[in-house]
Amino acid sequence: MAADMQNRASRQPQGRLIGYARVSTDEQTTEAQEMELRAAGCETIVQEHGSGASRARPVLSKLLRDISNGDTLAVVRIDRLARSVSHLLEVIEGLTEKGVHFRSLRDPIDTSTPQGIFSLQVLGAVAQLERSLISERTKAGIKAAKAKGRLPGNPGIRERRPEALAKMTAAQKAAYGTRIQATANQWLPTVKRMRPDHTWDDIARVLKQRDLDWTPERLRRAVKWMVAEGMADAALLRRSPPRLPEDRLMTLVAGIHSSNPGLTLREIASQLEQLHERTPRGGTKWSPSSVKNLLDRAKRSGLLPSKTV
């Protein structure tokens, strides 16, 4: 992963230097971190109060979604950003895919420099070694337990103890939240553009055309979690209004275009055919002109800015 980051992080940052400061409790202040970040040149600094072990960090999640190509995210130390080495690498990989650099003021990590990339590669190797060692220890423990006639796994779970089941449920919810936050920048913008005008089924089909495998049920559940955590607007969960067939097609085409503005009219037509959408006249074959008409209507209705069509 780090080698791929090196290939994509060759150019120097051209955008903003944005600082992220975090403390563990509401009683603590981020003032010391802010001073250090401002001294490093950060014009914008976002603050968050939350435990280092906590997976729910709404401020960080929003920052990772909103930060732009060419920007640099800076922290005082890497433990202010990540819960673990693997989490750090995951966050940096997401930033690199968006063309964003990462810099830690007190650690030798700066993805805009060869030395910083090398340090990141070392961390990646350490994380891989750690995963391998954990796997080996787990296998050895299971083998030893079986040799002594014991069942592997948590006895509290096997015996259905309430405290053990509650702990397992909490861990599963935390892991689910982590997965949702890690991928939100891939699907949430499309949801925001299309909800509540479109059904969850429509949005899932649009995302599928981008090789994102979502069912309507899983998508709605993910958005409900984002809303509950304060990371998305509750309006996304409103019931979709009944729409005339042409109005539905208009907003669907507008949603496809907004999700990928680089698509040509012919490519949008091809996607509509793959979605098995009927044309306004009930046909199965879409022409670029039909797509253009719907985009023009979307522009007049305010669904799309004038410059997009």
UniProtKB/TrEMBL annotation:
Pfam families: Resolvase. Gene3D superfamilies: Resolvase, N-terminal catalytic domain. Keywords: DNA integration, DNA invertase, DNA recombination, DNA-binding. The active site is at S24 (o-(5'-phospho-dna)-serine intermediate). InterPro entries: Recombinase_CS, Resolv_N, Resolvase-like_N_sf, SSR_resolvase. GO terms for biological process: DNA integration. The keyword DNA-binding applies. GO terms for molecular function: DNA binding; DNA strand exchange activity. Residues 16-149 form the Resolvase/invertase-type recombinase catalytic domain. PROSITE patterns: RECOMBINASES_1, RECOMBINASES_3. Belongs to the site-specific recombinase resolvase family. This is DNA invertase Pin-like site-specific DNA recombinase. It comes from Aquamicrobium defluvii.
